Automatic annotation (TrEMBL), chain A:
Residues 306-428, 462-588 form the C2 domain. Keywords: Membrane, Repeat. It is a peripheral membrane protein. The gene is SYTL3. This is Synaptotagmin-like protein 3. Monomer. Binds NRXN1. Binds RAB27A that has been activated by GTP-binding via its N-terminus. Residues 4-123 form the RabBD domain. Signal peptide: none annotated. It comes from the Eukaryota. Residues 164-177, 202-220 have a biased composition (Polar residues). The keyword Cytoplasm does not apply.
Length: 611, 220
């Protein structure tokens, strides 16, 4: 077959460019499937509301949707032309400007067919009846590819054994054995590709040089890296979108260019109170920036000598639970390109420790100025309790030609001590810009992601007097305290080469008498940013005991068939000093932990850095 | 006695899907006609004169606001080079609409349009919406394919036609928006035929009051 030859002639270097695209696509698909699942669930719920309930007689004269009784003369109801059910006047929807109506279920059914793309799959099935709806071309390519090439292609860092085991789990096998309309020969082609590649990687020396040629590092002067819409590193970023923590729901920055009816827009924000799509932001406002900023996070950017200041104000709106960062202007910035005296500055913010693209906000880019005025407000939806654990990173960048970025300076504002109630702190202030501060922190203790947890010490009424508990001398006040810990989720975990994890969390509370209480969360499959939302409850512990206890939380990637699970990272809370932990983060979580113990019956949110 | 229990923690799910629906669009055409440039112009408003031929496939996601709906577009940029054909054609089946591109300064790319169209017919669904785009209309001096020929071919194939320039940002946005609109139209049709009660009584995402784009052909 002619195609066979073309495919098997692909070089490893080419696959290195294609695979990240497939992974990114899969992340997009995952989000999409989740959305569709929700839409369908909602429709189902709507149907159930009208369904005949157990024991209740199906009165002929009642609305098929809300079960309200219908009268003989007044409020008789009318028959829906979609489903022929009689419904009351409340349960009709008039779509658009027409007088034709549908009952709520029919209307929603139609909506769901639009929103899920079902209409397309139905149409397509007329031509390709065997085509499944979910599996995209990319998913299939990826599947075949992974199935066959793991050993030779995937870099050896993640345990290749466990991966190949996982992928040959029964579910996967079944999927593979039913290629559902997928051109069988293409799968075979992949087989030949991979065998070919194995040979390549063993014998051919020029593979490495090819690699360089195709390398996705934007530092290479060639156009290619910039042209790729996402670098390799962006895979995780993308995947992260699948399950962003609820506690940090972003409001997409205002985009004045969007021709949105403000009312409608508001409505949409309310019904989907969540971040704007990652790659787009919904409008032109610098998706170029978002696309490459994954690179800037890992150090692929130029540095200018840092000068100047940024003027900003911080407000927290308790009503909407949003942090507003008003970026007014900068002055006296360094030139992004010193020789050409060029500077196109923009400002980017993160609420550290969240460095995911979810938590990124940017202003527009100003052209040719070192004293730009932005007047833009960047918003973060964040719970007040979360604020104390965050630091606002405000960095200024120059956007050069070919999307090259130059770092112009940053300021980091810890929010723990920020008084959002005080109006004087809400005024605009100038903050001097500094050089990148965090490099050393990141390199000295490798960050293995962050774990967000929420903890509460539950004490029965009467024993919550702190002094009593704190002393712990003589008679123990009570032993029936309870430590509740909700493991919300994790992000920035070291994912497998396919961009996902089958992760779970273990909690181990070591009491002063060395007794260990162990708990484990369920495994969340195939997610890069798992949201377990699982709670660990340690019963019968007193505050005094807890003060001398330590709680160790470890995140694992599950391996199938007895191959040992991979430890992704750990965080420790409690009395024992963590010898390995970085000083900064260690002391911070220590403070948080003390807060949990000293404020019984109150939830404390913590973001723990995994080591 | 100290003990430990696990329990599920119910919390409201975060929905991070701030859009109404998702369309998948494929850009095809010979190598170097400007597919990647066209997409970058649209998604990032950027253009670079350097030519980096696409390896395999790539995509971008952009959410637009159209007809009171947020539509998430997943736009696939395919490699024009023959060697990637197996991969790129695998994506035809998932696409609701196509942008078939040629270069007005390159006769060969225009002659290939018929073949590309056949590929669509072979690999895609029957109602695939296709826009024919003659790119690089900023290079009037080097033009070898007249607007007229472009339009005639489009008529012949049953596609809509635009001349555009990724470089000068001419008709780029219009092309995508028109494609979105025609997909929406197809969608309404498909839904209405499935629901006989509304045939004739248009509803939902109707675009009848959508006026034609300002200038379909290049003004330069
Ligand atoms: N003058 C002019 N040049 C353009 C235009 N669009 C693209 N180009 C140039 O044409 C060359 C090819 O553009 P690409 O977008 O990479 O071509 P492609 O169709 O993606 O090519 P493949 O990836 O190989 O399929 C580049 O040098 C672009 O700068 C345009 O509208 N006007
Ligand atoms: Mg290209
Ligand atoms: Zn009713
Ligand atoms: Zn009905």
């Amino acid at each position: 077959m002619a195609q066979d030859a073309s495919l098997s002639s692909f070089q490893e270097s080419e696959w290195e460019v294609i695979l990240p695209v497939l992974y990114r696509d899969r992340a997009v698909q995952n989000v999409e499937e989740e959305r569709i699942r929700k839409l369908k669930t909602r429709l189902q719920q709507l149907r159930w509301r009208g369904a005949k309930r157990g024991g209740q007689e199906y009165a002929e004269k009642s609305c098929a949707r809300c079960r309200r009784a219908l009268g003989l003369l007044l409020n008789r109801g009318a028959v829906c032309q979609g489903c022929s059910h009689r419904v009351c006047s409340e349960c009709r929807v008039f779509p658009g400007r027409t007088r034709v109506w549908r009952c709520t279920v029919c209307y929603e059914g139609r909506n769901v067919r639009i929103k899920t793309g079902e209409w397309f799959f139905e149409e397509r099935a007329k031509k390709f009846p065997t085509e499944g709806r979910q599996e995209t071309a990319g998913a299939r390519l990826l599947q075949s590819y992974q199935e066959l090439s793991k050993i030779s292609v995937v870099p050896p860092t993640p345990p290749p054994l466990s991966e190949s085991w996982c992928s040959s789990s029964p579910g996967r096998l079944q999927e593979l054995s039913q290629p559902r309309g997928f051109n069988k020969s293409v799968e075979n082609l992949f087989l030949s590709v991979t065998t070919h590649m194995k040979k390549l990687s063993k014998s051919q020396n020029d593979v490495t040089s090819d690699k360089q040629l195709l390398s996705t590092s934007p530092e290479q002067g060639t156009g290619r890296p910039e042209r790729r819409s996402q670098s390799d590193t962006a895979i995780n970023v993308t995947a992260r979108k699948i399950s962003a923590p609820d506690i940090l729901q972003s409001l997409s920055p205002e985009s004045p260019k969007r021709p949105a009816n403000p009312v409608l827009k508001q409505e949409n924000l309310l019904s989907h109170p969540t971040p704007g799509p990652l790659f787009s932001g919904g409008s032109r406002q610098g998706s170029l920036i978002s696309i490459n900023s994954a690179c800037t996070e890992i150090g692929n950017f130029d540095n200018a000598d840092v000068t100047g200041e940024v003027e900003l104000a911080l407000r927290y709106c308790f009503k909407t639970r949003s942090l507003e960062v008003c970026i007014k202007s900068c002055r006296n910035l360094a030139y992004g390109e010193e020789r050409k005296k060029k500077c196109n500055p923009y400002v980017k913010t993160y609420l550290l420790p969240d460095r995911s693209s979810q938590g990124k906000r940017k202003t527009g880019v100003q052209k040719n100025t070192v004293d730009p005025t932005f007047q833009e407000t960047l918003k973060y939806q964040v719970e007040p309790a979360q604020l104390a654990t965050r630091r606002l990173q405000v960095s200024v960048w120059h956007l050069g030609t070919l999307a090259r970025r130059v770092f112009l300076g940053e300021v980091i504002i810890p929010l723990a001590s920020w008084d959002f109630g005080d109006s004087t702190t809400q005024a605009f202030r100038w903050h001097p810009l500094r050089a990148k501060a965090e490099k050393h922190e990141d390199s000295s203790s490798p960050n293995h992601g962050e774990l967000t947890v929420r903890a509460k010490l539950v004490l029965p009424a009467g024993t919550s007097k702190l002094q009593e508990a704190q002393e712990g001398t003589g008679e123990e006040p009570s032993c029936d305290g309870q430590l509740c810990l909700v493991v919300l989720g994790a992000q920035n975990l070291p994912v497998r080469s396919d961009g996902t994890l089958n992760s779970f969390v273990k909690g181990c509370l070591t009491l002063p008498d060395k007794q260990k209480l162990r708990l484990k969360s369920p495994v969340l499959k195939k997610q890069a940013c798992p949201q377990w939302k699982h709670s660990f409850v340690f019963n019968g512990v007193s505050p005094a005991q807890l003060r001398q206890s330590s709680l160790e939380l470890t995140v694992w990637d599950q391996a199938a068939f007895g191959v040992s699970d991979r430890l992704l990272g750990e965080a420790r809370l409690g009395s024992r000093e963590d010898p390995a932990g970085g000083a900064g983060s260690g002391s911070h979580s220590k403070l948080q932990w003390q807060k949990v113990l000293s404020s019984p019956n109150l939830w404390t949110d913590m973001t723990l850095v995994l080591h | 006695m100290a003990s430990a229990t696990d329990s599920r923690y119910g919390q409201k799910e975060s929905s991070d899907q701030n859009f109404d629906y998702m369309f998948k669009i494929l850009i095809i055409g010979n190598s170097s006609v400007g597919k990647t440039s066209f997409l970058f112009r649209y998604a990032d408003d950027s253009f670079t004169p350097a030519f980096v031929s696409t390896v395999g496939i790539d995509f971008k996601v952009k959410t637009i606001y159209r007809n009171d709906k947020r539509i998430k577009l997943q736009i696939w940029d395919t490699a024009g080079q023959e060697r990637y054909r197996t991969i790129t054609t695998a994506y035809y089946r998932g696409a609701m609409g196509f942008i078939l591109m040629y270069d007005i300064t390159n006769e060969e790319s225009f002659n290939a349009v018929q073949d590309w169209s056949t590929q669509i017919k072979t690999y895609s669904w029957d109602n695939a919406q296709v826009l024919l785009v003659g790119n690089k209309c900023d290079m009037e001096d080097e033009r070898v394919v007249s607007s007229e020929r472009g339009r005639q071919l489009a008529d012949h194939l049953g596609f809509e036609f635009f001349e555009a320039s990724a470089k000068d940002n001419i008709n780029v946005k219009q092309t995508f928006e028109r494609l979105v609109d025609v997909i929406c139209e197809k969608m309404s049709e498909s839904l209405d035929t499935a629901d006989p009660a509304v045939t004739g009584a248009k509803q939902g995402p109707q675009l009848t009051d959508q006026q034609a784009p300002p200038h379909q052909d290049c003004a330069c």
